[in-house]
Design brief:
GO molecular function: 5-methyltetrahydropteroyltriglutamate-homocysteine S-methyltransferase activity; zinc ion binding
Strand content: 5-15%
CATH architecture of the largest domain: Alpha-Beta Barrel
Distance between the termini: 46 Å
CATH class of the largest domain: Alpha Beta
Oligomer: single chain
Organism: Paracoccus versutus
Largest sheet: 8 strands, parallel
Protein name: 5-methyltetrahydropteroyltriglutamate--homocysteine S-methyltransferase
Strand order of the largest sheet: 1-12-11-10-9-8-6-2
Radius of gyration: 26 Å
EC number: 2.1.1.14
Number of domains: 2
Number of strands: 19
CATH topology of the largest domain: TIM Barrel
Family: Belongs to the vitamin-B12 independent methionine synthase family.
Helix content: 40-55%
Length: about 625
């Protein structure tokens, strides 16, 4: 029979309990034992929620107090020397110091996890690097779940992905460390086997990237070693297609293979045609976005796989860990019913997984009501007039190649700008926003709660803006900014003023550690009903004779830091946002703003994982 499986569950808690516990611990208000108790309570609740949703294969060791890559680094004893010697296990103080830094020991580097908005702590490797088990977290959490009557599948970051994501110091090539690393992984698998685990999920998302020859060789060596440790291995790939790495993945001596069929549905046919005898985990439910799945279409894929591969060798799963989506849609009480009906957060996605698995096993009639309700929601979204704006579509379709090029060359524009602004050869400015001080945050919170009137809040912001201008003048800066005190977030501020956006109340996802973000929802065609920043920019410019920059967030960053509609190509949505920002630029120019800064911090993170796809993205 086909099984409903999950690859990972959000760890922060439905009410961000993990954030509260971590920050209390860091403040000294919650001791290590108290933090451990609260973490155990969260894990128990998450396992129970998955069991109640009908998930047969429930992950363990997907929970982390900070980051799963950091967990692996600590488990393997790969603690940089600046954090002190490692005893029998890495201490909680060392663990958090690696992530956050302490006096005289700066934190390890942090960067984005593949092309997601989640951050991981980058492993560091030095000459003479040694590995050993410096903890028992995967075994402990497996036994913890078993004590609750829940048999789990432990999750590990794979050795080749872990090494590939790390950085060598003093000329150390991370993959050269594989021979010393594999015995430690093998020991861990044996311990999990002894504890009663029958399957282990090993995540190797590096397989969906352009692999070097040494990485391919490392994968072969790694799984030749790990295959004989007594536990069956599900090799989990996600965030894209295996493509030229498909034959390699199928050749590895593992018992199961997980495929991302949301990002790369086309790879299922190739895998089935290969005639592999591996268990196939079909990632049919989007683990990175918040829209309800089209269960009819997903079921058709699953049924095709069952006919060719046999339902007994299939699992139905999300495309990747559900770490990247909010916990529970039921917490959203402020969304209108129609929009809410198009959404699915982690708990709802588990229900979708279970529905597909049951339909495959027992027939569609067993889940007829769920399938019918899903079909109605999918049709409602497809036909909703609020999603589609004919004027926006016509304008976007009318963008010609000439519109994508500047009318004059940069040297000419530079000469005109120099004459107009009269700036020195090396003008001074700042990057943009000034600190959101406690006073600014209190005023904003009071305004939102109705404790500060509109007039009082406006007067406060004007005073802060003028003080910011005067401070820059006193410092002798040449190009000023207005401080952006009126803005709560560089994406949310614009999204709140653009058509096609909606916002949740509890749609939090983990960015790193205790840092959670609440991405906007882009549900429909995007346009700019009214100017967004002109009034504040013009007011600030009126306070000074020096040129002042207009400050805008760019379309790629707005796109990357939102949950984006999946019913049209992302490029179309990005162009719609770009047209709205273009209108804002024109209005700023008309208001006398002579310089405009457009911030695109997410430009790099949106770059496709495959080099062959990057030119199209950059165009």
């Amino acid at each position: 029979m086909a099984q409903a499986a999950n690859l990972g569950f959000p760890r922060i808690g439905a009410r961000r309990e993990l954030k509260s516990a971590l920050e209390a611990h860091w403040r000294g208000d919650l001791d290590e034992a108290g933090l451990a108790r609260q973490a155990a309570d969260l894990r128990a609740a998450h396992w129970q929620a998955q069991r109640e949703a009908g998930i047969a294969v429930i992950p363990s060791n997907d929970f982390s107090l900070y980051d799963q890559v950091l967990d692996m680094t600590a488990l393997l004893g790969a603690v940089p020397a600046r954090f002190g010697p490692v005893g029998a296990r890495v201490s909680a103080a060392q663990y958090f110091a690696m992530a956050r830094g302490v006096q005289d020991a700066p934190a390890m580097e942090m960067t984005k996890w593949f092309d997601t908005n989640y951050h991981y702590i980058v492993p560091e490797f030095s000459r003479g690097q040694q590995f050993r088990l410096a903890g028992t977290k995967p075994v402990d959490e497996f036994l913890e779940a078993r004590a609750l009557g829940i048999h789990t599948r432990p999750v590990l970051v794979g050795p080749v992905t872990w090494l590939s994501l790390g950085k060598g110091r003093d000329g150390v090539e991370p993959l050269s460390l594989l021979p010393g690393l594999l015995p430690v992984y093998a020991e861990l698998l044996r311990r999990l086997t002894d504890a009663g685990a029958d399957w282990v999920q090993i995540d190797e998302p590096i397989l969906v990237t352009d692999l070097r020859d040494d990485q391919r060789a490392a994968l072969r060596d790694a799984y030749a070693t790990l295959a004989g440790q007594g536990v069956r291995i599900l090799l989990a790939t996600y965030f894209g297609a295996l493509d030229d790495n498909l034959d390699l993945a199928l050749s590895l001596p593992v018992q199961g293979l997980h495929l991302d069929l949301v990002r790369a549905p086309q790879q299922l046919g190739r895998v089935l045609a290969a005639g592999s005898d591996k268990l196939l985990s079909l990632g049919l439910i989007d683990g990175r976005n918040v829209w309800r799945a089209d269960l009819g279409a997903a079921l058709a894929q699953a049924q095709a796989a069952a006919r060719l591969h046999g339902p007994g060798r299939l699992q139905i799963a999300p495309s990747c860990s559900l770490l990247h989506v909010p916990v529970d849609l039921e917490a959203e009480t402020g969304l209108d019913a129609a929009l809410k009906g198009w959404l699915a957060f982690a708990r709802q996605k588990l229900a979708e997984v279970a529905t597909l698995a049951r339909a495959l096993d027992e027939g569609e009639e067993a889940v007829a009501d769920a399938l019918a309700g899903n079909a109605r929601a999918v049709l409602s979204r497809r036909k909703a007039t609020r999603i589609h704006d004919p004027a926006v579509k016509a304008r976007e379709a009318g963008v010609a190649p000439a519109d994508l090029r500047r009318a004059s060359a940069y040297p000419h524009r530079r000469a005109v700008q120099d004459r107009r602004l009269g700036l020195p050869a090396f003008p001074t400015t700042t990057i943009g926003s000034f600190p959101q001080t406690p006073e600014v945050r209190r005023a904003r919170a009071g305004h939102r709660k109705g404790l500060v009137s509109d007039a009082e809040y406006d007067a406060f912001l004007r005073a802060e803006t003028e003080a910011c201008i005067r401070r820059q003048e006193a410092l002798g800066l040449d190009m000023l900014v207005h401080g952006e005190f009126e803005r709560n977030d560089m994406v949310e501020y614009f999204g709140e003023q653009l058509a096609g956006f909606a916002f949740t109340r509890m749609g939090w996802v983990q960015s790193y550690g205790s840092r959670c973000v609440k991405p906007p929802l882009i549900y429909g065609d995007v346009s700019r009903p009214v100017p967004m920043t002109v009034a504040w920019a013009a007011h600030a410019q009126s306070l000074t004779d020096r040129p002042l920059k207009g400050m805008l967030t760019g379309p790629v960053t707005i796109l990357q830091w939102s949950f984006v509609r999946d019913d049209q190509p992302r490029a179309r949505t990005c162009r719609q946002i770009a047209l709205a920002i273009r209108d804002e630029v024109a209005d700023l120019e008309a208001a006398g703003i002579k310089a405009i800064q457009i911030d695109e911090p997410a430009l790099r993170e949106g770059l496709p994982l495959r080099r062959a796809e990057r030119d199209a993205y950059l165009q």
